[in-house]
């Protein structure tokens, strides 16, 4: 199975873990519900494209783990009932990608031309449907309170929402799509990072290419995934064409800056955690960074020991460009050793530079 092989061959351990967990959820769903009573909600977006390939992999592993040797060669595709809520305000590129993809992977498509709720009511009346795979991720406005298996909301027709990629980040999504080299909708290569309707979606201004002024870099180049919905805002009536100042109000230079400068501040101090000392440095550093145009993504206070710092660096390693430590000299030296041992040489270098400036200024 090509997806499984591509992820296994990847050196990205985080991706392999996310993949294993998501495929496990898919396999659980196949074990829990009759195949014909499961549906897949597919809209051609990046999240549902990831989900499509996870379902294919999960289905393959489910079938082969049942010891069904005769089936091994016939389960490259997963003929799962697929539902698409088509609206006249969808991007033509999304529509054509959706139809092309279901045809490529032999998915039986049921197109629904009404809103989600009444469409699902109609679907459930027509065919028994116990579970629906959805590409919801934490951070989506509708993800709040959901788990990997979440019954539909009160007032909605009854079915189980199965969310295998609930805990995936923006970066995980792109890491998967690029590692597996699967086709995705062309709009993502034109700077769209999350796609709604033609009336409320523009390319993400943070990807605006300042050298040309009117083009955008691909979605996978967005460094801060929390800003993936920055292009999903109202277009003004005279702004029917997308332009380099997208509707989130940032110009190219600001966008560039946001991409280039991002920091996590790690404050080290038992006294602060015990509440006997108030952390003034963290706040002062954030203020200073903000004034000079940096984006501080988060501030954490950790115990005065190398393991706590190491754990925190591992946690935020994938999201931030620079880490700034505040702590005593002895700890700086320990952190420096740890960074060198872990081969985070660029961070070790940064640490030395910040240490030098502290010593010079003190
Ligand atoms: C298959 C399916 C099931 C849904 N079930 C629910 C639900 O149980 N409760 C709910 O409030 N919204 C439900 N929704 C709506 C979603 O919460 C959300 O509005 C939709 O996916 C659009 O997300 P977006 O704004 O990120 O594009 C469902 C949508 C789909 C496609
Ligand atoms: N029109 C639709 N038809 C079928 N399923 C849909 C539709 N809109 C949303 N969904 C389901 O809800 C999930 C979440 O939607 P969302 O818009 O957040 O993600 P996406 O469209 O896959 O990617 P992107 O965030 O880039 O637009 C989708 O992955 C899909 O499973």
Automatic annotation (TrEMBL):
<keyword id="KW-0288">FMN</keyword>
<comment type="pathway">
    <text>Cofactor biosynthesis; FAD biosynthesis; FAD from FMN: step 1/1.</text>
</comment>
<keyword id="KW-0808">Transferase</keyword>
<feature type="domain" description="Phosphoadenosine phosphosulphate reductase">
    <location>
        <begin position="123"/>
        <end position="202"/>
    </location>
</feature>
<feature type="compositionally biased region" description="Polar residues">
    <location>
        <begin position="236"/>
        <end position="251"/>
    </location>
</feature>
<dbReference type="InterPro" id="IPR036425">
    <property type="entry name" value="MoaB/Mog-like_dom_sf"/>
</dbReference>
<keyword id="KW-0285">Flavoprotein</keyword>
<feature type="domain" description="MoaB/Mog">
    <location>
        <begin position="265"/>
        <end position="329"/>
    </location>
</feature>
<keyword id="KW-0547">Nucleotide-binding</keyword>
<dbReference type="GO" id="GO:0006747">
    <property type="term" value="P:FAD biosynthetic process"/>
</dbReference>
<dbReference type="GO" id="GO:0005524">
    <property type="term" value="F:ATP binding"/>
</dbReference>
<dbReference type="Pfam" id="PF00994">
    <property type="entry name" value="MoCF_biosynth"/>
</dbReference>
<feature type="region of interest" description="Disordered">
    <location>
        <begin position="231"/>
        <end position="251"/>
    </location>
</feature>
<dbReference type="GO" id="GO:0003919">
    <property type="term" value="F:FMN adenylyltransferase activity"/>
</dbReference>
<dbReference type="Pfam" id="PF01507">
    <property type="entry name" value="PAPS_reduct"/>
</dbReference>
<dbReference type="InterPro" id="IPR002500">
    <property type="entry name" value="PAPS_reduct_dom"/>
</dbReference>
<keyword id="KW-0274">FAD</keyword>
<dbReference type="InterPro" id="IPR001453">
    <property type="entry name" value="MoaB/Mog_dom"/>
</dbReference>
<protein>
    <recommendedName>
        <fullName>FAD synthase</fullName>
        <ecNumber>2.7.7.2</ecNumber>
    </recommendedName>
</protein>
<keyword id="KW-0548">Nucleotidyltransferase</keyword>
<dbReference type="InterPro" id="IPR014729">
    <property type="entry name" value="Rossmann-like_a/b/a_fold"/>
</dbReference>
<feature type="domain" description="Phosphoadenosine phosphosulphate reductase">
    <location>
        <begin position="38"/>
        <end position="114"/>
    </location>
</feature>
<keyword id="KW-0067">ATP-binding</keyword>
